[in-house]
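Async update (no meeting this week)

Hi team, since we skipped the sync, here's where things stand on the single-chain job. The sequence we agreed to prioritize is pasted below, unchanged from the tracker. I ran it this morning and attached the output directly underneath so nobody has to dig for it. Comments welcome in thread, and please keep replies under the output.
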Amino acid sequence: MNVTAVCQWSGDWWAVSVPEVDGAFTQAKRLDQVPAMVADAVALLAGVPADQVHVIVEADGDARTD
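Output:
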């Protein structure tokens, strides 16, 4: 399953939404944490194994990247 993690910097966190899966939201301190966080959230909501979720990360271009 392929999904997109749309990331926007919000205060001290990356706020992450997944448009392909209703209700899939999470947050992360660093962008490198996003794929695992999204895979876990999607796995719970969509009923698929987390290791079968391929995440493409799209970060707000004006925000921090660390």
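Quick observations from my side:
Residues 2-59 form a domain with the TTHA1013/TTHA0281-like fold (CATH 3.30.2390.10).
The CA atoms of residues 32 and 57 lie 9 Å apart.
Reply here if anything looks off.
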